[in-house]
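Q: What does the assembly look like in three dimensions?
Context provided by user:
Components: two
Sequences:
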Amino acid sequence: MTVSDLMTQRHELRPRSHAGAAWRAAVAIVSRDVLVTRREIASLLVQTLAQPLFFLFIFGKVLSSVGTTSPRFSVVLLPGIVAFTVFLAPLQALSIDLGRDLSFTREIDDRLLAPLPVTLVALEKVVLAAARGLLAGGFVFPLAYWVLGSSYQVRTDEIGVLIGMMALTSILGAAIGLVMGTIFPITHLSLIFSIVITPLIFTGCLYYPWGSLGVIRWFQVLTLFNPLTYASEGMRSAMVPVQNGAPESLAMAWVVLVLCTSLVLSLGSGLKFFRGRVLS
Amino acid sequence: MTETTRPTAAIEVERLVKRYPKGRTNAVDGVSFAVRRGETFGLLGPNGAGKTTTIGMLTTMVVPTSGRAVVAGVDVVTDHIGVKQRIGVVPQRANVDRSLRVSEILTYHAAYHGVPRRERTARAGELLEELGLEKRSKEKLDLFSGGLQQRVMVARALMHEPEVLFLDEPTNNLDPQSRLFLWQRIRALRDRGVTIVLSTHDMEEADRLCDRIAIMDHGRILALDTPEALKGLVPGGTMLELRARVPEVITLAAAPGDMPSTSPDDRVLAALKQLPGVTGVDRQDGRPQDHRELQASGYRLYADGRDPGTLLASAAQAVIGEQAELLDLRLARPSLEDLFIHLTGSNLRS
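A: Here is the predicted structure of the complete assembly.
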């Protein structure tokens, strides 16, 4: 038996079921990403937690200590910081990573040539980026506990809702990151961030509860067009203790409906754009 | 699978067309060819000829506009996954995963293709050794030269034992040493029975490595055959270069004859011109050598490439018959570049 016979035989031994092959490829790609994330965990956390740390310190601690804000502010601020972290970390990571990959490094090619549909490669990226965002979001809590001290107040009876909101928000962030990474060239991304992300953050009810905006009605209506508003408000209703008498908020059904709709739209278009970019 | 059910061709391409959405012409314009199992098949042409697009369609990354392509018995349009399971690709540009170490690049690639853990570790070890990378297997690629990255990509493409290996301009931008190394590896793979499709704009590379070559330009195949047969397509296909020296005494004896046209040089030239099959003879620069009183003359013969052996013999006889001494006789076959110029009227590199 010659070497090529042996090779042929090995080819035939290899399972040819497409679903099986795609599943194994997807698992291998996930394990690759887990390995890389594990190696980069320190820098990942520093990158994603620096901003929440300083926000909590200045707005939650310093400003309330000097009397500029009421101590209660940190309680409504924290859910916004969590929403900000789980939304923005995957969005930025995925869009920059993908933009760079599709523009010049082409490191993704090896995964695109693996035996699985190319949209699954994108979906895996979304899920992993969301998971990393969720991880970073989880770290915000001990960080807040440490920075805020006695002002740290989070209700624990809605923890399931909280985790659900965080997961939904991080997947939404990753899906929007997928859209941005595929439609904008990497050279324009930082400009796009300033044009899109900055307004998104400041109209997203991250730093103020939506109910309190009643006094500026037009702005309150404007914030309703920002999915981040629903994420922040959802987070708030799952985190702010009831006895603090939070102002009226958005109904949970609306929050979930809008977040899910945004997710379906952004993920659907992101996957479509991705396919268009990698297959010519 | 038995021999009878196994498709005979590794690749079958029929009237394959690709027009990019913004393209004014077809990037690939109705090409048809077949690659046999175990064959090394070359796509030779200048940049923009459609080589990379053709390889892109065969590797499922470019969607054909029309036509049909079957790789290892699997249709590239209807069964992406089936094709990807059977092919290995070494791209034109380095695209190695820089977050991973060299050995991990190989093992993860194999994992994507469902190679069991033990097998992929063993195979990565073998390939790293074979490609002279074993000492650097734990490193990341940041400090690797283009040649080393290329080796990693070749090793990676072989990790899942593909039935067909695609190499898109593999030695482009490589230093000469890395190029020679890669050529050796490609020949070794061919000896092992791997079907190889190689695109290049380097005639020497195509000539040395390929069993058959398709010459492409403007999305079409202009000619397809073995390198030897292709070179035979150039009109006046054989070229003979010879140098002879005429002893001084004869030159002097002939000189007083007062007829310059019958100088020994001219007589040799005339004798060569009369040989059967010769279509033209040029005199080369005499380039006097340091051989005492003796002088050398160079000639270049053009002949239709039927039988170079007979031509060699009769040319030698003609020179000796004129009492000149034959210094050098060399058969210069036309290059693929000559053919390319003949087919397109333009240079391959232009």
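Follow-up: The CA atoms of residues 62 and 126 of chain A lie 36 Å apart.
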